[in-house]
Amino acid sequence: MTRSWLAVPLLFVAFSGSAWAAECPALLQGSLPKLHAKESVDLCQRFAGKPLVVVNTASFCGFAPQFKGLEALYQRYRDQGLEVLGVPSNDFKQESKDGAETAKVCYVNYGVTFTMTEPQPVRGADAVHLFKVLAQQSSAPKWNFYKYVVDRQGRVIANFSSLTKPDNPEFIEAVEKALASKS
């Protein structure tokens, strides 16, 4: 009889875990190590149900000044729920092998406060799960600072080339569409 009182909480935990997995969009399944930190970012826990901009970045790319525009976008819309996720990558040979140097470029040089990960592969068979799903839903990044706008359901609603600056009217329109999307 004493074991039966344990069954209910254990069943609840088992069912709530599977329900959470079912609610998490494919795009957000998994976690990535946070830039220059000991913890990881659980993508589902952090971003599920939120409009999201995902950008593959590189510290030594000519497009790196876009960090300022991405930070301004984040500051402008974060109170409405917008999240920005920067994923450094050396796939185009313009990222440091040293996470501390990448962190300095992002946090010190450009004042980034949105979530950044440690460098990750973003193209091809080695791409992390997030970028494999982004590629399936739209296209793989063609260069650094390729931008994806994701709605609250975890679906890519638009993607933009490196040439598109964060203050571009079409990019802003896509962000506002993601903000208006329903969970």
Order of helices and strands: HEEHEHEHEHEEH
How much beta, percentage-wise? 15-25%
The CATH architecture designation is: 3-Layer(aba) Sandwich
Largest sheet: 5 strands, mixed
Q: What is the CATH superfamily classification? A: Glutaredoxin
Uncertain runs: 3-21
CATH top-level class: Alpha Beta
Instruction: Give the overall shape, derived from the CA principal axes.
Output: globular
In what order do the strands lie side by side in the largest sheet? 5-4-3-6-7
Total DSSP E strands: 7
Number of domains: 1
| Number of alpha- plus pi-helical segments | 6
Q: How many angstroms does the end-to-end distance come to?
A: 43 Å
Spatial extent as radius of gyration:
18 Å
Name the helicity range: 25-40%
By CATH, the topology is Glutaredoxin
Summed over residues and divided by their number, the pLDDT gives a mean of: 90
Structural class by SSE content: alpha/beta
